[in-house]
């Protein structure tokens, strides 16, 4: 399937926001990005979803692209954590427990990879829902997503963040619907650059306001605030960033770098917290200088992750990063 440049750039936006979240730029910025950046990846996955007839091949592909990278990064970071922290056997076993069961907390170094397991189960369930007729599929999606929201209200967590997968099923369905909308609506595809800029930034502005209207959102912790507002914010920001991504020129350096990040997002997801662990040492306590240091750390982190992604893609280890 031919890659969609807007999607790669949009995934890069999400990855950069994720890394900035791990750096911590303040509670307001944290609330802003959590309102859409991880839900956006579920929607993008739904946008790219294609109906498959052979479940075995589908399962094999999703295992290769999601499960293998999950355990590769989890075990790698567990070993690094064990060596660097000189932790006890009991602490080692505790971290191992969270890798193999409740991975929404206490993961060694790379907590962000919870997303890979959650997306895997969401897509596997969605595969079977896609075999239903249109109305039954929609009812099932709404029912399962509602169940996910209900579980969060009672603080019930499932292994591998499957409770988040249930909500993710709703986001996948939204993404698939958006794909059909953009394919069928020729006037949407042929919008001028200026129209896309206005729609993109206006949508982002509206979403930014509504994110702060909503309560705290954190997909990893299964916190959604008001469910309908959460879904609306995630959808509108995803569409807005899609329009903004479409105006990027192919001749510019940043275009190629952003598409590279989008194409290698799993490497950035799995290694960013490891890299930041060392870069955090150059931060300062002073407000302005600390902000500048964090921006420098972000650039250095992206550069190092680029080298990792490029290097891993050229070795036999590429199998472990879903390639």
Describe the structure.
This protein has 323 residues and is an all-alpha fold. Helix content is 73%, strand content 0%. It is built from 14 helices and no strands. The longest helix has 31 residues, at 55-85. It is globular. The mean pLDDT is 91.
What number is the mean pLDDT?
A: 91
Give the total of beta strands: 0
**How much helix, percentage-wise, in residues?**
over 70%
Low-confidence stretches: none
Q: How would you spell out the order of helices and strands?
A: HHHHHHHHHHHHHH
Overall body shape: globular
Q: How far is the N terminus from the C terminus?
A: 14 Å
Q: Tell me about the biggest sheet?
A: none
The proportion of residues in beta strands is: under 5%
DSSP helical segment count: 14
- Rg over CA atoms, rounded to whole Å, is 19 Å
Task: Look at the helices and sheets and give the structural class.
Answer: mainly alpha
